[in-house]
Amino acid sequence: MESLQDRTSRVYRITYETFSKFSNNLNRCKSLEEVSQVSVRFLKYLLNFHLFRISINQAGSYLVYCQCNSQGEFELISKENLLSHELQILENNIPVKTEEIPSQLSEKIDSTALESPSLWCWSFKKMDVDFTVSLISDKNKAFDVGDIEMLKLISDSFQAKFQEIYLKEELYHKNQSLLQALDVIKNQNKKINQIVENQKQTIAERTKEVVEKNEKLLHISALNAHNVREPLSRIQGIVQLFEVFDDKTCREELVPKLKQSSEEMDKVLREVIEMASSELTQLKAKKL
Question: Which Gene Ontology molecular function entries are recorded, alphabetically (predicted)?
Fold first, then answer.
């Protein structure tokens, strides 16, 4: 016949083997839905309860998991929407045990079928994250102080997994934001590169235009230097001869030559002015 000590040892061994399976399966979960499936599968073998609820602080809001009648559900709520006993225990850290079941929980289970139901609630803190654990039991599914150690282990496992999933979700959203920002930067770089290319093209066109203008101006300058210089030199030479010859010779020979050279110079100047005006008009037209 099995002794009490052997029986107790076997119960502890089975319980911790079950907890090990629960913990290992929980560690492999990648989503809250998978966490719920693992919890529904194993939690009933680790604790006696009709309803299990854990509320974990997630950046000011609370991720709540509630399991009863072999069903588990999650919701994200603000702190003010926590149950009154959860708010109370977060404030004073005093564990709660009461026979007054909140209506929000009693409506989830058939409390009339329970025999002397009790609500238990504890608050814990791990890695600067506070959370509460609530549990409803009765005489048929009794919970006592000796089960708190197991409850704490289970709660720590939940908290660690919730925090992991939360951080992964947060990292995913930040990565998405960074990718969007990167796309914006890429688009801006494309616009900047396009602007730079347009500027390069504009500069090249303006440089070409300046070169053309300079060529035109050099051409006009060359015409002025070559064509105007010749009649001007003759006029200067004739003027100097006025000091050498007498009046009759100047009137008969030098004045006609002076007149001829001045007319030639006038013709050259007209050609230069006409050409310069035409070239400058074309350059202005190109600019417009």
Answer: phosphorelay sensor kinase activity
Strand partners, 61: 58, 78
Residues whose CB falls within 8 Å of the CB of residue 82, separated by 6 or more in sequence, listed in order: 55, 62, 64, 90, 132
Rounded to 10°, the helix 4-27/148-223 angle is 10
Q: Say if residues 24 and 18 touch (Cβ distance below 8 Å).
A: no
Residue 136 lies in a domain: yes
CB contact at 8 A, 99 and 118? yes
DSSP 202: H
Q: Which residue(s) pair with 136 in the sheet? A: 51, 119
User: Do 44 and 135 belong together in one domain?
Assistant: yes
Quickly count: other Cβ atoms within 10 Å of residue 192's Cβ: 10
Q: Using an 8 Å Cβ cutoff, are 56 and 162 in contact? A: yes
Q: What are phi and psi of 83, to 5 degrees?
A: -70, 155
Query: CA-CA distance, 219 to 121, in Å (whole number)?
Result: 100
Report the amino acid identity of residue 58: Q
Per-residue pLDDT reduced to its tens digit, 67-100: 998 899 999 999 999 999 999 999 999 999 999 9
**CB of 257 closer than 8 Å to CB of 242:** no
Taking 50 as the pLDDT cut, the residues of the chain under it are 288
- The structural domain count of the chain equals 2
Alpha-carbon span 142 to 187, nearest angstrom: 64
CATH of residue 9: 3.30.450.40
